[in-house]
Amino acid sequence: MAKHFLLLNLISLSFCYVVLAFEPSPLQDFCVADPASQVTVNGLACKDPKSAKAEDFFFSGLHLAGNTSNTFGFKATPVNVAQIPGLNTLGISLVRADYAPWGINPPHTHPRATEILTVLEGSLQVGFVTSNPENRLITKVLKKGDTFVFPIGLVHYQRNVGYGNAVAIAALSSQNPGVISIANAVFGSEPAIQTDVLAKAFQVDKSIAALMQSKF
């Protein structure tokens, strides 16, 4: 009996550690971010709640199409704590994603958030890659009204596979999910990763690695 009790305690403790690994639950109604604060915290300091106003919890603009006239044919319009200070400590954010025909949101990760994406217009091929050593691609074509989840930290992408524009809304489980674009991070770091390191990592000639770096 004692062994079972100890096992249950250990399991409960492990769940506590899982919870603590993500953003903490708020201990008050809200914590409107104070961008003028000099206090350094994991997140953003709160301003006096008595000074909170409706604009601290408001954003207008998700009805506007993003400009997709770029290399990728893609534009993200984020709505996180930078746009809505009232999101501070609430552990959620949004993004509007616009895709030109055959436009892509290149492979990337969100280090602090799981993403759930819903297609509003068009059709998207989406996918994510599981972690080592399996590295299995899980992919599906989504149509209007379909929803897909990208687990936290995993490399994922979206591609418009239609002949018209596509639009999606994604919710993320962090006030500031962050984004790491794989190609840009690897080939466009500052200072640059040594070319011979990239050549060996990607099993290509140094000239190919240098060419890729020049693109970023």
Automatic annotation (TrEMBL):
Keyword Metal-binding set for record: yes
Chief location of this protein within or outside the cell: secreted
Naturally occurring in which organism (per UniProt): Anisodus acutangulus
Taxonomic classification: Eukaryota, Viridiplantae, Streptophyta, Embryophyta, Tracheophyta
Keyword annotations: Apoplast, Disulfide bond, Manganese, Metal-binding, Secreted, Signal
PROSITE patterns reported in the protein's UniProt record: GERMIN
Gene3D superfamilies tied to this protein: Jelly Rolls
A Pfam family the protein falls into: Cupin_1
Disulfide bond annotation, renumbered to this chain: C31-C46
Descriptive protein name: Germin-like protein
Location within or outside the cell: Secreted, Extracellular space, Apoplast
Gene Ontology molecular function: manganese ion binding
